[in-house]
């Protein structure tokens, strides 16, 4: 009965209680957590049935577990700790399994009981070991729980102290997101610093690496500087070649050029002028202008045909030509002023032919209609900025004056100073350069400054009403931009003057119906214009005497009209047929100028 009471805990089956009822006590398979017992040694004695019996075992007594009765429906677990793993060399074959215990005979009940007792003793030893291990683990858990409670208390205290210490003041807030680069040194404090000898060695190695890198960079910098010097030398050579070729092109075009421009018919003139039958622009040639009128007999006043007058110029612009289209033809000439050549551009024509519109435009700020003066100034400053990258430095001085009745007036001076008499003088007794003392010369650094001066000059210019124009310019207006250039690296300097002139209207006295003061103005204007033609003819014929001093206009422009300058003349023509005679006179004068050939221009360089 004792054996049957423990058979569930030990995993054994009693032969009498088994369903088979074979009458033999057979062990059932051990649970997987109970290792098989080692083979029993032979016991001393005369009876083999006494093998493996414990000396403390009392026959016919039930097997009792010292830890208490077995738990129903639970296998008996031995408290013995598993043996430590054996050190097996790498590559060694696995240990051979223990040979199985030989099966006892069915009649050897004593041996079977001995085996059971031996297994029971082993399980008891394991239970005692597990109980001891469980006690130690419980003590360790208690210790860890106490430590955890202490750590939690410390954490709460530290959090409270940190919140009080690092509370942000009013108006200040902490960054809501952590900064890894700032938290890393706090969470990972550096280890103890290396000894001074190691630090010194590391610093020396770093210094050597930096010195080697610096030497490499110095070599690279020297190579780059050498290459840069070669490129600058090549760039300078190309710039000088450009100037030479540019000047060659201008000389091939002629140092005196004449452009003819016919203004469009104004809206208020459309009733008087129905078309342009008397003006012809050959489509295949933009350098020819033809004037024609019917020829009538002196007796019968009969029309006998058309009389044609053909004129050829460097360029002819029809009424449809825009300001930009015209400026593109003179842009290269303006560039010559930056290269050190004196340049003079002036507009000639009768009153109301569009001279002021061509030179100044109705509005200097309007990009579509502004005249040649604002456009030329813009190009000069733009070209100077580009040449600055090539080592050139430029300074500019602007002046604006008018010649009225053979008197010079400063258009940039105030009202009290406008009455002061100005005279033309030589810079020195040995110099051919001319200047006007007491003339206001304003240093300028931008296009906007020059445009402001143009507006001031336009308000001060002398105008009057004539029979040909309600607002006729009664004076020659001369704008001069003096350019001083230098290249310190090459020890080069250049100086030039860009003169842009809006001449007074040329008309016959009987046509303008001038009287009194207007008559004297017209006479002075026509005299100066005639002198201009004589000077150009004298230069063309290489005459020893050129009458510059016969007029204040030619005397002032002496340096810009001579052989060392480049000159361009606009002849402006009215489209009205009623001005046919004045247009014919203007074209004849311009044609004579166009036939003139002056000497080669020379740059003012040092």
Automatic annotation (TrEMBL):
GO cellular component terms given for this protein: microtubule
Localization per record: Cytoplasm, Cytoskeleton
InterPro entries with a match to the protein in the record: Kinesin-like_fam, Kinesin_motor_CS, Kinesin_motor_dom, Kinesin_motor_dom_sf, P-loop_NTPase
Principal subcellular localisation of the protein: cytoplasm
Region feature (Disordered): 1-108
Coiled coil: 200-255
Keyword field: ATP-binding, Coiled coil, Cytoplasm, Cytoskeleton, Microtubule, Motor protein, Nucleotide-binding
GO MF annotations, alphabetized: ATP binding; microtubule binding; microtubule motor activity
Biased composition (Pro residues): 28-38, 80-100
GO annotation terms (biological process): microtubule-based movement
Family under the similarity heading: Belongs to the TRAFAC class myosin-kinesin ATPase superfamily. Kinesin family. KIN-14 subfamily.
Protein name according to UniProt: Kinesin-like protein
Naturally occurring in which organism (per UniProt): Accipiter nisus
């Amino acid at each position: 009965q004792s054996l049957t009471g423990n058979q569930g805990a030990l995993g054994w089956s009693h032969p009498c209680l088994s369903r088979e009822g074979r009458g033999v006590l057979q062990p059932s398979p051990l649970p997987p957590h109970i290792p098989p017992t080692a083979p029993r040694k032979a016991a001393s004695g005369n009876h083999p049935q006494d093998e493996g019996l414990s000396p403390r075992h009392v026959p016919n007594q039930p097997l009792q577990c010292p830890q208490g009765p077995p738990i129903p429906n639970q296998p008996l677990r031995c408290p013995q700790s598993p043996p430590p793993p054996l050190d097996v060399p790498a590559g060694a074959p696995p240990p051979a399994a223990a040979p199985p215990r030989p099966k006892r005979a069915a009649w050897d009940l004593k041996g079977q009981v001995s085996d059971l007792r031996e297994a029971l003793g082993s399980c008891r030893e394991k239970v005692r070991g597990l109980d001891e291990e469980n006690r130690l683990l419980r003590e360790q858990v208690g210790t860890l729980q106490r430590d955890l409670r202490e750590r939690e208390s410390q954490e709460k205290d530290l959090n409270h102290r940190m919140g009080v210490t690092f509370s942000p003041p009013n108006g200040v807030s902490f960054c809501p997101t952590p900064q890894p680069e700032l938290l890393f040194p706090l969470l990972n404090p550096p280890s103890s610093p290396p000894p001074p000898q190691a630090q010194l060695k590391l610093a020396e190695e770093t210094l050597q690496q930096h010195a080697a890198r610096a030497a490499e960079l110095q070599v690279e910098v020297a190579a780059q500087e050498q290459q840069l010097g070669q490129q600058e030398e090549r760039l300078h050579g190309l710039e000088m070649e450009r100037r030479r070729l540019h000047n060659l092109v201008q000389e091939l075009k002629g140092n005196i050029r004449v452009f003819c421009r016919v203004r469009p018919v104004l809206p208020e003139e459309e009733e008087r002028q129905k078309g342009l039958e008397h003006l012809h622009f050959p489509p295949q040639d933009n350098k020819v202008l033809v004037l024609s009128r019917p020829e009538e007999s002196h007796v019968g006043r009969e029309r006998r045909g058309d009389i044609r007058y053909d004129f050829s110029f460097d360029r002819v612009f029809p009424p449809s030509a825009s300001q930009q289209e015209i400026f593109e033809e003179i842009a290269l000439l303006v560039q010559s002023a930056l290269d050190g050549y004196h340049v003079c551009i002036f507009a000639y024509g009768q009153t109301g032919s569009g001279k002021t519109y061509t030179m100044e435009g109705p509005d200097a700020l309007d990009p579509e209609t502004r005249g040649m003066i604002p456009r030329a100034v813009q190009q000069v400053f733009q070209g100077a900025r580009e040449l600055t990258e090539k080592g050139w430095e430029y300074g500019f001085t602007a002046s604006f004056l008018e010649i009225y009745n053979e008197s010079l007036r400063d258009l940039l001076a105030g009202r009290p100073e406008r009455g002061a008499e100005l005279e033309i003088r030589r810079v020195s007794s040995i110099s051919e350069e001319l200047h006007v003392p007491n003339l206001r010369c304003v240093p300028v650094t931008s296009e906007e400054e020059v445009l402001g001066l143009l507006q001031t000059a336009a308000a001060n210019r002398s105008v009057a009403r004539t029979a040909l124009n309600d607002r006729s310019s009664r004076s020659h207006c001369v704008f001069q931009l003096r350019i001083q250039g230098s290249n310190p690296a090459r020890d080069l300097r250049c100086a030039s003057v860009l003169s842009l002139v809006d001449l007074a209207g040329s008309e016959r006295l009987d046509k303008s119906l001038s009287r009194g003061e207007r008559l004297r103005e017209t006479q002075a204007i026509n005299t100066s214009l005639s002198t201009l033609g004589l000077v150009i003819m004298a230069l063309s014929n290489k005459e020893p005497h050129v009458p510059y001093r016969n007029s204040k206009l030619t005397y002032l422009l002496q340096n810009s009209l001579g052989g060392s300058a480049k000159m361009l003349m606009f002849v402006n023509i009215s489209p009205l047929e009623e001005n046919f005679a004045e247009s014919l006179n203007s074209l004849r004068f311009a044609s004579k100028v166009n036939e003139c050939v002056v000497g080669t221009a020379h740059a003012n360089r040092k």
